[in-house]
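Task: complex structure prediction.
Instruction: return structure tokens for all chains below.
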Amino acid sequence: MYVVLAGGVGAARFLKGLVRVVPPEEVVAVVNVGDDLWLHGLRICPDLDSITYHLAGVVDPDRQWGRAEESEVVAGELERFGADRWFTLGDRDLATHLHRTERLRGGVSLSTVTAEVAEAFGVAVRLLPATDDEAETRILTADGRDLHFQEYWVRERGRPEVAEVSLADARRAQAGPGVVEAILDADAVLLAPSNPVVSVDPVRAVPDIGATLQQTPAPVVGVSPIVGGAVVRGMADRLLPSVGAEVSALGVARHYADLLDGWVIDDRDADLRVGIEEELGIETRVTDTMMDDPEVAGALAATVLELAAELRR
Ligand code: GDP
Ligand code: CA
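Output:
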């Protein structure tokens, strides 16, 4: 069984590759909930939903998040009441939020309703929220504001200068059911090529998860989300400097150095390999990590699993 520490789109693309080379029943994704928010009375879980929609094959192929063939009739009608449409709410997507919110209000945990949503979409990968607690990532800006991560990222498009990424709520949270056991029993723990600062760090900031990652006998192998000194998609490059990390495959490896046994970087970064191995003592492999083609994603997953198998010996 393989555990993948996951954010949203980068993780979803990697998981699509992984299930080409191992049965989905053998994959457990421990998913970031730091992006989750309340909006119009609904609980929205962007990273869980991105992964569900990708694995179910219903994701919007252009945006790489949200549902394909989506409309925004309800969001348009909400404008009548003065709602600001900074956060996209698709009509199909709303059904997921409505179901989740009704169940949460009925006292069911996020992990239970996540399993229900996955099953309804025919997703066989086990999706475990990092925590059932509300543990939202906050962005403290240089101009003195305390923003929800989504307000910073989506509404303000990542423009404000960041003074601090606050994971205080994650640090007070309890690991979701099954997470600790999965990390201890795993054949390997894989770090998806997700945003290190606001996807993977909020997962490992949950104290039980961070401690278990140090204890597990499983090798930990990651894939770099940074290729050629830039992000593949998104804006992860804006946040790495705010935690003192260089925007490179080496910088991210340093950021994860306490955790990693193995690291997989892109062909374009081949010249960093020797430096990473010498400086950090992390076994490094070089391959194509640009997962636009599902076959490349599958080959990348196979490389990651081979490295993990070597590190187990
Ligand atoms: P988000 O929560 O939707 O932003 O998604 P994640 O945190 O999972 O992933 C965002 C990161 O994924 C960005 O830093 C991207 O550079 C990275 N990413 C996306 N697609 C790819 C890809 O095909 N290859 C690699 N190496 N990284 C990718
Ligand atoms: Ca996210």
